[in-house]
Specification:
Layout lengths: L2 H8 L6 H10 L12 H8 L1 H20 L3 E4 L7 H4 L7 E6 L8 E5 L6 H16 L3 E4 L5 H11 L4 E5 L12 H9 L3 E4 L9 H13 L3 E4 L8 H10 L3 E5 L3 H5 L6 H8 L2 H8 L9 E4 L5 H10 L10
Parallel strand pairs: 3-4, 3-7, 4-5, 5-6, 7-8, 8-9
Antiparallel strand pairs: 1-2, 2-6
């Protein structure tokens, strides 16, 4: 089945990533024979108006992508990231602009508050540089604060980074990071979204984006967060999908200042198990993949765990 077909099917009412995953896993899906398709999909395609509207939508998206230098990737495409492929609820379609080689690198997601402390800014730069030096690609969300700092460090080091966006690629949100997005592309990076052209930023889409961001990463580093920060969405998703969650320990000065943006870090490092479970919404078994990094002495262990998580199917290994 072609990517254009999958894009059209994804536009049908009530058809989500899980349904598409099951359809492709069956190995018998054939648009020419509706009997080989799941009933919901077959019934929608049997309706001429629904079918025509779905394929018209797909054609328009491909026309837009071609005119804007965007590649549309589906689960049926060899370019579809291996880290996503085994998860049924991963996006069936990705829109990507830039170097697709960035998707083949072992990857680390670096995220955090939009308002990091002074040390949080320094630590984000250092952590990004350390992972780049070890050969990892950096995944983040192009948000203000820790995300932008991670992307900026990639640009400074001329290293490929992946920005996962919560809207169509017709725009960049926030607007003030539009130049950063261009610089990321110039450094061999990639802008990627599961949302089609024309989809504008909405709060609920950022939560969905955070899930995809976690899926695209071997591990998530939550640099700094308060107890209700948006960074916790990606942190929870990381554990849900079997990833490592790395949490840097706050500095003595940030602790003594009782900085609000480190409270989640403190809770995950020093709090009782019950507090950690409530904050992360995970099982006790998942906590085994929570790693607290208290300083550079922990880096060898951190990199060792990262290397052990690299999938054989990735094309560029450490």
């Amino acid at each position: 089945m072609k990517t254009r077909d999958i894009l059209a099917i994804s536009a049908l009412s009530g058809v989500g990533p899980v349904a598409i995953h099951k359809m492709l896993e069956s190995g018998a899906a054939d648009l020419a024979d509706l009997r080989t398709l799941p009933p919901r999909i077959a019934n929608s395609l049997a309706n001429a108006s629904e079918r025509n509207a779905a394929f018209e939508y797909a054609d328009k998206q491909f026309d837009w992508a071609e005119s804007h230098g965007v590649t549309i990737i589906s689960r049926a495409d060899r370019l579809y990231p291996s880290l996503l492929a085994k998860h049924p609820d991963a996006p069936a379609i990705l829109f990507a602009k830039g170097s697709l080689d960035a998707l083949t690198l072992p990857s680390i997601g670096i995220i955090g508050t939009r308002e990091p402390t002074a040390h949080g800014k320094i630590a984000t730069k250092r952590m990004t540089a350390a992972f780049v030096k070890e050969g990892f690609g950096v995944v983040s969300g192009l948000a203000l604060g820790c995300d932008a700092i991670a992307h900026e460090e990639c640009v400074t080091l001329d290293a490929p980074g992946v920005a996962v966006l919560a809207h169509g690629l017709q725009t960049v949100a926030p607007k003030r990071n539009a130049k950063l997005a261009d610089a990321l592309l110039a450094a061999g990076g990639l802008l990627v979204s599961e949302f089609a052209f024309g989809v504008e930023p909405q709060p609920r889409l950022f939560v969905q984006r955070d899930k995809t961001q976690a899926l695209l990463s071997q591990a998530i580093v939550m640099m700094q967060s308060d107890l209700k920060g948006g960074s916790l969405h990606a942190s929870r998703a990381a554990l849900k999908y079997g990833r490592i969650l790395i949490v840097p320990y706050p500095t003595t000065s940030d602790i003594s200042n009782n900085e609000p943006k480190i409270q989640a870090n403190l809770a995950l490092a020093d709090g009782p198990s019950e507090e950690k479970l409530e904050l992360l919404g995970c099982s006790r078994e998942d906590l085994a993949r929570l790693m607290i990094v208290r300083g550079r002495d922990d880096y060898p262990d951190m990199f060792g765990k990262m290397r052990s998580s690299i999938e054989p199917s990735q094309t560029r290994l450490l």
